[in-house]
Amino acid sequence: MIRPLISLLAAVGLAASPVVAQAPEYPSMPPVGTPKPFTLPAAESYTLDNGMQVTLLRYGNVPKAFVGLRVYVGNLNEGGDVWLPDLVGQLLREGAGNRSATEIAEAAAEMGGGLGTSVGVHETVVNLPVLSEFAAEAIPLVADVARRPTFPQSELERVRANLQRNLAVAKTQPQTAAEVALAAAYYGTDHPYGRVLPTDSQLAGYTIDDIRRFHRENFGAARAQLYVAGQFEPAEVKAAIEQAFADWEPGPERLSLPAEPRPGPRVLLVDRPGAPQSTIRIAFPAPVIGTEDDLGFRVTNALLGGAFNSRITQNIREEKGYTYSPGSGIGFNPNEARWTFNADVTTAVTGPAIKEVIGEIARLQSEPPSAEEAAGMRTYLAGIFVLQNASANGLIGSLATRDFHGLPASWLEAFVPGVLAVTPAQMQSLAREWMPLDKATVVVVGDLDTVEAQIRELPELEGMPIERVDPFAVK
């Protein structure tokens, strides 16, 4: 039965001649348009008598509202008690007012959302997205969590155990070792910016009394800013805010603890015997947010390593295959900022990878990018900014950044035109000014038996002090 079928197919030319599918013809990509300006929706901002700041922003068409409370309390306030604010933040949602953790979660779910808390270097955040009809009801729940946490003793050990696991895992990661070494060298361990992790004994020693004391001494209306964005009834929300927050004691003023960065030149080596990869960090000082060089340097960062099609990514990922996901970014603190490049590269090419990264910085310093390349980076950065503000949550984040740094009300709307005005010559000039090698801090975590010789042989690092460090040594 099979042979006659084959013969028949051959006779009609189906068996002998493969069918060749023609590649479809796709239309050419349309040209990239000019980025649209960002226009901040009308907002109402006011201050309660106790000093708490409020911003209301009716925004979008989706029937949801986003309630976000920012309290200027974080790791900056911890003194020597590293991660005590993190423990406080985790326990905020374990019981508040007359509700247990389960009852808090159920109340949030009944409003169509989920309550979350987080702690950063400068802020503790309580967020609750809800359906629009429950916006006013969400306010007192957020207030209870921030103002009246019960800090149940019964939950402390479970929450602490979670943080202890996180700490133990973090210490096994080369990326953590690089961050700890970089922060300690750049800021010094006398400042909270330079203390990334607690010791095991520190985390194990915090008591419920320590947690309650920290909250009592640091949380108050004078350090708080409440944002409500989305669709809601303003009169109802304002009444709920007055009811929930007007009697909150002001508490202390926001803490100011300026850092004194200590840029390089320096090279720090962390041994990780047998590691198949090396983790690299390269850091330089960066312009303070809102200053004249800020937006230009952001475009410069996008060109170097901040965008997926950046020069460094094209070089050491696409062309040479040294790494999978290199990148760079700018971290902003009050009156200070830092540019950091990071990558995990194959051990055997650690030195060559550093050489290429420094070479890309030097190339930009020696000649400006083409008009086309610069325009692409400007468009990318402007587009990302508009997209991130397309949601109520994203818009609250941008408003909170503006308010945290004390930037003018016009800062958000000035961002896109400011980015689009950056010229290739400015990018070259900013790379020269802010990224001289004598300000570089280079950190490498890897198998030093293989890596150290590569580092020491790089002419780009000639004359820089090179030191082996143990980032997890108890100070």
Q: Kindly name the structural category.
A: alpha+beta
Spatial separation of the terminal alpha carbons:
84 Å
Shape: globular
The largest sheet has its strands arranged as 1-2-8-3-7-6
Q: How many helices does DSSP assign?
A: 17
Largest beta-sheet characterization = 6 strands, mixed
What's the count of strands? 14
* Name of the CATH superfamily of the largest domain: Metalloenzyme, LuxS/M16 peptidase-like
User: Which CATH architecture of the largest domain?
Assistant: 2-Layer Sandwich
Task: Please tell me the total number of domains.
Answer: 2
Write the layout of secondary structure elements.
Blueprint: H1 2-11, E1 43-47, E2 53-58, E3 64-71, H2 84-92, E4 95-96, E5 99-100, H3 101-110, E6 116-119, E7 124-131, H4 135-147, H5 153-171, H6 174-187, H7 200-205, H8 208-218, E8 224-230, H9 234-245, E9 266-271, E10 277-285, H10 294-306, H11 311-319, E11 327-333, E12 336-346, H12 350-366, H13 371-388, H14 392-404, H15 411-420, H16 424-434, E13 441-446, H17 448-456, E14 466-468
Parallel strand pairs: 2-8, 9-13, 9-14
Antiparallel strand pairs: 1-2, 3-7, 3-8, 4-5, 6-7, 10-12, 10-13, 11-12
Helix pairs in contact: 2-8, 4-9, 10-13, 10-16, 11-12, 12-16, 13-15
